Amino acid sequence: MGSAGPACNRGRAIPPHRGNRRGARLVTEVRPIVVELLGQLGSSREARQYLEQFSRVNESRFAVVKVGGGVLAEDLDHLVGALAFLHRLGLYPIVMHGAGPQLDRALAEAGIETLKRDGLRVTSEEVMAIARPVIYRENARLVDALERHGVRARGLLHGVFECDFADREKLGLVGEVADVHLEPVRGAVAAGALPVVACLGESRSGQVMNINADIATRELVWAIKPYKIIFLTPTGGLLDESGRIISAISLTNDYEGLMAQSWVHSGMQLKLAQIREMLDPLPPSASVSITSAEKLTRELFTHTGAGTLVRKGEQIEWYEQVPDDRRAELEALLEAAFDRKLRPDWLDGRPVRGLLMAESGRAAALILEGADGVPYLDKIVVTPEARGEGLGAALWQVLRARAPAMYWRARINNPIAGWYFQQAEASHRRGQWVVYTIGIEDFAQMERLVKDAAARDSGWREEAE
Asked: What is the CATH number of the domain that holds 419?
């Protein structure tokens, strides 16, 4: 058993931008930086794979990174370090920032009450008189910090968002985005500078308006259609009922269930609803990564990521047997992933318990009847195109729900052995194999499962792998 990528693979495939000016420069200049990256992450294969993906994307479409005001206040050093690192790699994330906590504090100091309606800050002229300098100051703080790190940055305070009044009587000077002008963003990137966009807009007549940072980010994402969408927060992800970070959420499969949970508070419900609305018009492979500034690099350059990956998602379908109309698709998926050929009779006599397969055909897990009736995971595969999307994580979650106890094997030199060790409760070396188990407590039974796994037929034309 093995995989073309770990089950928690997390990047949406976008065709290469043929006019990309970074390509040749990356090849010649990036090696020392990659070495530094590998020292941080410990995986050359993953880092190089993601760097190749990112380098094929149009410069202004690499990523939109939404930075909360709390991150600017509490974690500026990590944020600037991560953005500077990406800039050295020749990558230009578009930074969209808020300043909510800073504005709350400034209003309190001025004796002005903070009012919100429908989750939006009521912005009177009195509030705007304080909000503008606060937002200007936070934008300048980030730009200055980047430039102190040797990174060219350009603050974009105006000229990106053209607005109408959302509801002047109810909300005051709050803007509803009517159009997004990308020329300032593209101009910054063309000049080699990171665009740092403030959440302010203007009407056609020049009236400055306040825009909710999450809404501004949504509109920017819809206009740019970036390869990566990242939200940086102090918590580093969405938290479950025990305060632990949820690694992956598929809106297709998990949204309704999550929204019904008593521990999902109103703020988390709003965030999930906003992300769902943002992803709705985008391709099925679209996703949002919620992580911390400190772990931004790990989120971008590793399969496992470091936060919550919220995917638009697709259905993971369950079959009691390998259906005739999907057998050829499954075999092509396995052979392409492993670069090997299956024997024509590989499925004959295999006691299939079930097949999990993504509706797109980009991920699958074949489960067999195992020793003592325990499910045996025979094959699991995620295509290279799906790596970075979280499709594998969704597959693994469905698999675990169907098989609370199971076992599988992988070669000792399997490139995702580290991930298998993280998922398994026990592992056992048997010659060239490592056998992994979950949900097995009886040692005698465990030994039977290990012996069974090590002796199983792989199904490949050549047994030597």
From this structure: 3.40.630.30
Residue 434's DSSP bridge partners are 410, 429
Q: How far apart are CA 229 and CA 10, in angstroms?
A: 13
Could you tell me if 116 and 257 lie in one domain?
A: yes
What's the pLDDT score for residue 71?
93
Predicted structure pTM score: 0.72
Q: Residue 268 — φ and ψ, nearest 5°?
A: -70, -40
Question: What Å distances lie between residue 253 and 249, 324, 352, 358, 398, CA to CA?
Answer: 8, 26, 25, 12, 10
What residues of the chain score a pLDDT lower than 70? Answer: 1-50, 52-53, 55-57, 59, 303-304, 385, 387-389, 463-465
pLDDT of residue 449: 97
Q: CATH number for the domain including 162?
A: 3.40.1160.10
Tokens at 372, concatenated:
């003592």
Q: Domain span at residue 283?
A: 22-311
What pLDDT, on the 0 to 100 scale, is given for residue 462?
73
Residue 6 lies in a domain: no
Same domain flag for 172 and 209 = yes
Q: Both 263 and 327 in a single domain? A: no
Q: For helices 251-259 and 266-279, give the axis angle rounded to 10 degrees.
A: 160
Q: How high is the pLDDT of residue 247?
A: 83
